Amino acid sequence: MYFIDVILPIPLKQSFTYSVNKDEAFFLQPGMRVAVPFGKSKIYTGIVYKIHSNDPPSYETKSIDQILDEAPIITQIQLKHWEWMANYYMCTLGEVVKAALPSAYLLESETIIKLNTETTASESTFTDDEFLVHEALMNQSSLHINDVRSILDRKNVVSVTKTLFEKGVITIEEEVFEQYTPKMKRYLKIASAYTSEENLRQLLDTMNRAPKQKEVLMTLFMLSSQQKKPIESVQLQKQSGATAATLKALIDKGVLEEFFQQQDRVRYQGEENNPIKSLNKAQQDAFQQLQNSFEEKDISLLHGVTSSGKTELYVKSIKAMLEAGKQVLYMLPEIALTTQLISRLQNYFGEQVSVYHSKYSVNERVEVWNNVLANKPKAQIIIGARSSLFLPFHSLGLVVVDEEHEPSFKQFNPAPRYHGRDAAIVLANLHGAKTLLGSATPSLESYYNALHGKYGLVFLKERFGNVMMPEIELVDVKERHKKRLMTGHFSDRMLEEINEALALEEQVILFQNRRGFSPFVECTTCGVAPQCPNCDVSLTYHQHKNQLRCHYCGYKMHMLVSCMACGSETLDTKGFGTEQIETELKVLYPDKTIARMDQDTTKGKHAYAKLIEKLENREIDILVGTQMVAKGLDFRNVTLVGVMNADTLLNFPDFRAHERSFQLLQQVSGRAGRTKKRGKVLIQTYNPLHQILQQVSVNDFEEMYKQQAEDRYQFKYPPYFRTIKITFRDRNFGKMQKASSWFAQALKISFKEHVLGPEQPPVGRVRNQFISNVLIKIPKQQSLAKTKAVIAKVQRSFLAVKEFSSVRVIIDVDPY
Ligand code: ADP
Ligand code: ZN
Ligand code: ZN
Questions:
Q1: Is residue 338 part of a domain?
Q2: Would residue 268 count as lying in a domain?
Q3: Number of domains making up the chain
Q4: Domain of 20: which CATH number?
Q5: How far apart are CA 390 and CA 81, in angstroms?
Q6: Positions at the binding site for Zn(2+)
Q7: Which of 87, 195, 234, 646 could join 685 in a cystine, given CB atoms 3.0 to 4.6 angstroms apart?
Q8: Cα–Cα distance between 329 and 385 in angstroms, integer?
Q9: Cα dihedral sign for 575, 580, 582, 584?
Q10: Statement: residue 265 has pLDDT above 70
Q11: 91 and 227 co-located in one domain
Q12: Contact call for residues 470 and 464 (beta carbons, < 8 A)
């Protein structure tokens, strides 16, 4: 009797046992996929985990339906890494597998398939079954795999679906978790109506009275004859010396057509690789220290101020690794940042660079997966967000974790709730590879590890090219209110500086960490503020659409004319968001171009890219935005950064709020003055003596670290204590309360005063689910494994209580 243990992509058990015959047992290897029946009628794709002839389990095992691979698509190291992840983050291997594999690898009876519109299928290569499915898809926009079963009149259709996918005939529909629009580049071409020579000549004849437009067209012809790749609009504008308005006129006339391409999918076109830059003295020293530190330690932290040239150090380290025949993983906290880096790395390493992230289509992800698995030349350097650490690396030599302090490395939902940086360190360790963490404002955790000898620590203290750090000024708005020096939300100082920058034709970025017009509306007669019906939070006023909206669940309603509680028409808006700043600016600077960058203005497909392009092309004078504007973007002509209100950041109820404020304010400040001219940063606050603001203003990371570390020690938080958060959710308040108290009580037997809560978070109800949290603090000397074992045991007893069966329990290890 032979059996295999199979990992299924579901959150139930670690693995499920199926029976196989002798031939199958000898053919199969861990890491191959099999299609297996599950429950009454479901079919899942699972991963072979173990092959054995141990005693069969007590239940009758089913046999597998089909073997889907001829060789493993998952390596042994990956399986080890995923075991660690399931274990450390307290979830099932199946949940890790589901997060790790492109969904096309996990076809199941619930999968929905669609016709791939990017390719045209050649029907002559189809089997009868494939033909039938293809035909059905021509008539219907999408099919459930269960529909495919009835079309083919049999149960197992996973392999037909798989071959159709491999032939590029179908795509797999995916769930979308995050809102992100990749950076798109804008290109221009002659409209198709004018591509014939005759039409073109006529067109040019009519343009004699529009010499500027004609010049643009002539430049376009010249460029097209010189280069094969499409013409970027930025390039055309520069070369022809035209204004953006001229280009727009040509587009409006229908002479030019614009089209967009996702920047990171544009294949590398360059001929030869550029030599990598020679490092300056400070960089050389730092590089040498890095090398030395890697002799002794596997992990190093590079603490270098913004624009100090950290990336060039990564490049140098990457080059060394490639020469040693090893693969490199370069992780970034956000997809939006990957696009900036790609062209930079491609300049040096050409087509050895691949990109991988969750916003790629399944086809693209499968392609990269296969290239990495086969260790292809074009998969030597992988740039990606956190999910790229799931790739089947062959021989990883170096992992770079850029902006290692960013909270977005942590996955919130669904499980596995892993931290990209920490999981990368474990991955590197399994490969015997080095990890290089880099940041201008390291996380307390990493800095602590570096100071205590766990990581190497290397500094880069000056900006490259002697560019000065921006000058930071704190502006006391309380005092200015008293002296009547405020115009709306702008202090006299802020206006002075804006005026000066605009007079010199420089650009300004203003940061306000809240979107919408005002965070809440209040009745001045009775004090009641309109609340979301689904969440315990006030609705935010959006002036543009005259709506009240919930930022937690998306609920919206028309702005009220009168108070719902007392009926009086004395509604007043409180607080302010990006939209209100934009409105005020338009009144203050009617001749200037004002733009806004936040979740509301970047929803459209190309909206984000267009805003960035406009800023780069100096078509925007002042950009107002949420923390989207803080991300590592590099704009040469921005000399002034204004923070409209630092206090909401500082007062956020979270133990990391101060650390986070420091990082965010330093990061936004880093946008100012990245060239010769020294940049200026103004921070408006009611609390200019706040220690964090003082530390930001003199760029004192060390002092910030010292004080924050003291607080963390005193209040028993990381890096001194580990924490595990357990969240309870239920539609019924009483049940949620009872369940969380029961759980906390059981934990207190073992962990005593180190169990906090249950406590309702600031927003205690979201989407009609009541929430409470229990936090466990774990001293360094307490075994983490034993702690988790106790939690798991309590959870098992909890699940046995019938009354609690509807309550959702979410365990988050090292929560953020
Ligand atoms: P960081 O990653 O620390 O923010 P970057 O690596 O982006 O800094 O460097 C800032 C700027 O300085 C970039 O425009 C980069 O091209 C330039 N730069 C850095 N190092 C060098 C070097 N050795 N030679 C030439 N230019 C450099
Ligand atoms: Zn009222
Ligand atoms: Zn809501």
A1: yes
A2: no
A3: 7
A4: 3.40.1440.60
A5: 9
A6: 523, 526, 532, 535, 550, 553, 563, 566
A7: 646
A8: 10
A9: negative
A10: no
A11: no
A12: no
Ligand nearest to the CA of 635: 1
* DSSP-assigned letters across all residues of 37-98: EETTTEEEEEEEEEEE-PPPPSSPPPBPSEE--SS-SS-HHHHHHHHHHHHHTT--HHHHHH
Q: What is the percent of the chain where pLDDT is above 70?
A: 95
Is 42 contained in some domain? yes
Residue of 306, 311, 437, 460 best suited for mutating to test ligand 1, as the one with most atoms within 8 Å of CB: 311
Is the pLDDT at 697 greater than 70? The verdict is yes
Residue 338: predicted pLDDT:
67
- Under the banding of pLDDT at 50, 70 and 90, the label for residue 177 is very low
Which domain-ending residue is among 52, 73, 105? 105
Find the DSSP H helices in 89-196. Answer: 93-100, 128-139, 145-152, 158-166
Q: Are residues 747 and 703 in the same domain?
A: no
CATH number (domain holding residue 125): 1.10.10.10
Q: Which two tokens stand for residue 73?
A: 């698509």
Instruction: Provide the pLDDT for residue 776.
Output: 97
Q: Quick one: pLDDT at residue 175? A: 44
Q: Identify residues whose C-beta is under 5 A from ligand 3, the ion.
A: 532, 534-535, 550, 552-553, 555
SS3 239: helix
pLDDT attached to residue 350? 85
Q: Are residues 419 and 443 in the same domain?
A: yes
Strand order in the sheet with 353-356: 353-356, 381-384, 327-331, 396-402, 434-439, 299-304, 456-460
* 639, 683: one domain: yes
- pTM of structure: 0.81
**Tens-place pLDDT, residues 645-664:** 998 888 877 889 899 999 99
Cβ–Cβ contacts within 10 Å for residue 116, how many? 20
Looking at the structure, tell me whether residues 437 and 493 fall in a common domain: no
| pLDDT more than 90, % of the chain | 50
498 and 607 part of one domain:
yes
C-alpha dihedral over 727, 732, 734, 736, to 10 degrees?
Answer: -10
Instruction: Looking at the structure, tell me whether residues 395 and 295 fall in a common domain.
Output: yes
Cα–Cα distances in Å, from 471 out to 25, 241, 675, 741? 68, 34, 14, 51
CATH code (residue 689): 3.40.50.300
Q: Which ligand is nearest to the CA of 521?
A: 2
CB-count burial class (<10 Å; 0-12, 13-18, 19+) for 785: exposed
Give the closest residue (by CA) to ligand 1 atom 6.
Answer: 309
- Tens digits of per-residue pLDDT, 379-403? 999 999 999 999 999 899 999 999 9
Report CA(312)–ligand 1 centroid distance (Å): 6
Range of the domain at 67: 2-105
| Residues 303, 305: Cα–Cα separation, whole Å | 7
Is 447 among the domain residues? yes
pLDDT score of 192 more than 90: no
Task: State the closest ligand 1 atom to the C-alpha of 670, by its place in the atom list counted from 1.
Answer: 4
> 402 has which bridge partners?
438
Question: Of 131, 152, 176, at which residue does a domain stop?
Answer: 176
Per-residue pLDDT band at 153 (split at 50, 70, 90): confident
CA distances from 316 to 11, 311, 465 (A): 42, 9, 18
